[in-house]
Known about the structure:
- By secondary structure, the protein is an all-alpha fold.
- It has helices spanning 10-37, 42-61, 66-93, 99-108, 112-130, 132-138, 146-175, 195-203, 206-210, 222-234, 237-248, 250-258.
- It starts with 9 loop residues before the first helix and ends in an 11-residue tail after the last helix.
Amino acid sequence: xxxxxxxxxxxxVAALGHSALVLLVVCMLGWLWQIVSKDAGHADVIWALxxxxxxxxxxxxxxxxxxxxxxxxxxVGFWSLRLAGHIASRLRSEDHEDGRYAAMRDALGxxxxxxxxxxxxxxxxxxxxxxxxxxxxxxHPGPVSAWALLAAVLVAVVALVGETAADNxxxxxxxxxxxxxxxxxxxxxxxxxxxxxxxxxxxWFSYPLLALGAPLGGWVWLAxxxxxxxxxxxxxxxxxxxQAIKSRGDDYRDYQRTTSPFIPWRPGQ
Length: 269
């Protein structure tokens, strides 16, 4: 890790508190709305927009390299709006709560609102934590390596294209009533059971590249490390696969047997 002193600009330190307070209020409102709507799916929209909004706030306040801040703002802005828009569109197209949240609601009964309170607050905390790389980049004085900048943009573009393609393919598949109870094996889903998660994880490698040479820049490598922990062990793959087996049974078990769980790879026999 870098031996540079911790960023101590008063405005930037205060910005951490400002974003935390806003996220707290938004998450509490989101929790209250799920009580009324009986649908907690918008927690994922709050996470994407909360993270993106916090990141853009830091980048706007920072006094680091203008080029670096503009590039970073473009990458995180496109990421946030695309992901939030995709999730919101999916929620509007469905007449029922996401299977993961519906299963929690059924299992917890009257205790579900307490669980969702902590869940929404955790979404806010994660949004705040994953916006920290942008807080570091916002104060990066430069100079910025052209190669690092190019590599970061390339990684972000590949991740954005891959995740968008995976999401669009799955949305088209689900829209066909003939595919109900079956597993999508088209496009990137032929090579990975979770290509959307893989490209989401890939996206987070762009920020350590942008933070190269910044005070505290070494810590930004924790972002992709933490992201894969959450995707693989906590909020991503475990719940998604459990729900898939519940709804698709042996068809999904066969899919598990022949298809890479994460990194796109040649399907097996």
